[in-house]
Every structure is written in C-alpha cells, then in structure tokens.
Amino acid sequence: MNFIKELKLEDGRVLSNSEEIGEVFANHFHEFFKRGSTQRNDELLAVLPRLVSDRDNEMLVHVPSAEEIKAAVFDLGPSSAPGPDGFPGAFYMYCWEIVRPDVCCGVQNYFREGVVTKELKGVKSLKKFLEDYGQASGQNINLSKSKVFMGRISAARKERLLSVLQILACYFSTKYVGVELLKGRVTKANVLPLLDHFKKKLSSWKGRLLSQAGWVELVRSVIGSIPIYNFSVYYWPATTIVSMERWMSNFIWTGESEKTRAITVKWDTMCKPKNEGGLGIRRLREVNFALLAKFAWAIRSGSSNLAIFIRCRLVNKDGTLKSHVNPSTILTGLKKFWSFVQNEERWVVGSGESIRFWYDRWIGNQSIEELLQPGRIPINLSAKISDFLEDNKWELPQVESRALQSVFNKI
Question: Which of 48, 90, 149, 239 could staple 78 via S-S, CB 3.0–4.6 A?
C-alpha cells in the first residue's frame, strides 16, 4: 500500500500528520482547479457562431420527467466512482424504488430553481424557525442587521437562497461585536481601523480640563479596554502594541498622543501595580497574552458548540494543534499558548466523568503516563476516572507491574 509519510512545504516546514497532509493536498487542488471570475462580453458573444438552435435549447433546459431521470441513472456504471454522497451507481439501481421520489424531486427542482429540494426546504425551515421564535419569545430578529456567509456556490444558487432568507450575504472582512473577522494572518493593516479609533479617542480629550491624575485614569480604565475583544482572539503584531503604548505614555505626560516630554518615568515602572510604586496600568502585550491563554483553555476544555467546532477544525486527535490550516486567523495566537496551557493545566477530581485516567494531570501536577517510563502506557486507552470509582471509593485493578502498582498506591 502506497502512502505519503511526510510532506515538505514551500516554507520549509515538514508535515507528518496524515490529516494535515490531506488538507494541504485538498487546498492545493481546490485552488488549482477553481473557476476564476468572469464577466459577460456581448461584443464577443455576437461574433461567435450560434450552434444551438432555439428548439435544441428548449430541449436542454426543460424539466426532465421521472422516466428520463431513471434512464440517466441506469446509464451510470454500476461500479462508477461515488459522487459527493458516497454511493456508486449500483446503489441507485438496486434501491431505485426506495430513492426514486427523492431523486426525481431533487433533480426536477434543480432544473426549476437551481437548488435541490432538500437544500431549499432546509433554508425555508430555517426562515420559519426564526419567525416562530420571534413570535413565541417576543425577541424578533432584525434581518436587515443580520448576515449570512455562503460557501463556494454558484451566483444563481446563492441568489435563490438569499431571496428565501431575506438576509444580506456577508464577505470577509467584516465586524462582529467589535471584532474584525478576517482571513489569514493578522497584520498591522488589519488592525489599523482600531488603531485609528484608539488614537481619535485620545485626541478627543485633548485640551480638556483634566488633571494628570485624570489622564492616568482615562488611560487605565477606558483606553486600555478598547482592544479587549480583539485581544481575546488575535495575536497582535508587536509594532501595533508599541505604537499604542507610546500614545498612552505621551497622553499621560502631555495630554496629547503625539506630543512627547523629555523627562518622564519609564513605561515599565508606570505599568507596575500601585503597591509597587506604579500607576496600575496594564501592559497591552500582557493583556493580549492572558486573554489568548484563556481562549486556548476554553477551546481545550470547553463543551460549547464553538469550542467543539474549533477543536474539529484546528486540533489533531492526539490533542496537538494542526500546523497548517488555511486560512486561519486565530491559529497564530493559539499556537503561542497551546503548549503553555497544556503544561500548566491541572484537574480537580469530581465525578471523574470527563478526566482521562491515564493521560490527564490529576495526580498532583502529573499524569499516570508521566509517572511511568515513556512508552509504558498505550496511546489509545479511553478509560475515565469514573470507570474506577464505585460509590465514591476507588476500585483499582490488580496489576503485575510494580511501577504501576506504586502509582496506584499514591492514589
């Protein structure tokens, strides 16, 4: 059996995880074969010979009958390569009487409206659910302020779906609850709008009748909180952090973001706690670090739909982060803190239903796997702590290994 063990990328990185290698190949061929943008040119079309008559065209676009659909299906090779649904031609031939209504209805609706029936029904069901929810709860959803993201589908199909939903299509980049949603790596250009807002906020206070203590409080409590939402998901470029802290320091000493003063206290000293002689201002990079570490912990241990989705998208089965996901804006920040959170996390045993008995760190600051010699525990054990508890008492198995029995004695 042939397989690819490792793959070297253009940037020099070497991938050995099969899931990551597969994703790189999928992305490569998608970009290679994707259709470019087109624009209608009537002058060019006018000089092309007309080979399809009006009668032929009517025949090509008419809605096929059930008999025509059956004939096309039975012309498929029985062992032909499966389509997106995973079923070869033999499946449809053998189960035709069962699948016939759905197949015929879906094909005919595609000729009429450009989408299959199941998809259109799903969109209509979603629209009805939103309406029913608003009537039952009194919390009506403002569709004019809502947005929907579409995948790589045709313009005609997208237009029909949007006409049912009555919601505007949204494209990157856009903003949600104050956070700029982007594709790819976060650059200085991406955060310029927030930097401009940050600077305008400082400029709007220029010349106001505030003491220097008032300027300090504005910087500490108001200005320092402006980038919080963005800091929670993105790792900010160092140049933007330096610029923002320079403006904050200038404002404290002069009341203006661009005006400097020759003799000042060092910024590091100003950022110390008040009981250590500082002003209690938080360093922006440290805030960014803390919030991203919190985000990494939420993804590692959370049970929300968002946490589950991101784990499926960015995390390998062994708990490590994927090294290549394109495009991912949040992956850069998670990479910087994933190992840190993993090494520092500890479990407090309760029911034990969510703690892996062999691999999680619940014995002090170590796991059973770490207490034993490397390689002594297989990598595919699935037991939880709750599997060894009976009426809140330990029910540990008898083992022949002295090292493992020593670990059990500690428990």
Answer: 90
| Domain identity same for 138 and 156 | yes
Task: Give residue-wise pLDDT tens across range 254-295.
Answer: 888 788 887 778 888 888 888 888 888 889 999 999 999 999
Q: How wide is the angle at C-alpha 178 spanned by C-alphas 172 and 183, nearest 5°?
A: 25
Q: Phi and psi for 137 in degrees, rounded to 5? A: -100, -15
E-assigned strand segments in 170-278 = 174-176, 179-181
Q: Are residues 324 and 182 in the same domain?
A: yes
Strands 7-8 and 389-390: unpaired
Would you say 188 and 237 are in contact if contact means Cβ atoms under 8 Å apart?
Answer: yes
CA distance 124 to 118: 10
Q: Give the chain's end-to-end CA distance (angstroms, integer).
A: 45
The verdict on 310 and 361 lying in the same domain is no
- Evaluate if pTM is beyond 0.85: no
Given the structure tokens 């985000």, which residue do they identify? 295
Q: Are residues 241 and 195 in the same domain?
A: yes
Q: Any alpha helices (H) in 218-324, and if so which ranges?
A: 228-231, 238-254, 267-270, 284-301, 305-314
What is the identity of the amino acid at 18? S
- Are residues 274 and 374 part of one domain? no
Same domain, 257 and 180: yes
Q: Is 39 helix (H, G, I), strand (E, B) or coil?
A: coil
Q: Are 121 and 199 part of one and the same domain?
A: no
- 92 and 177 share one domain: no
- Res 293: pLDDT: 92
Domain holding 394, by residue range, is: 346-411
Q: Are 411 and 363 in contact (CB under 8 A)?
A: yes
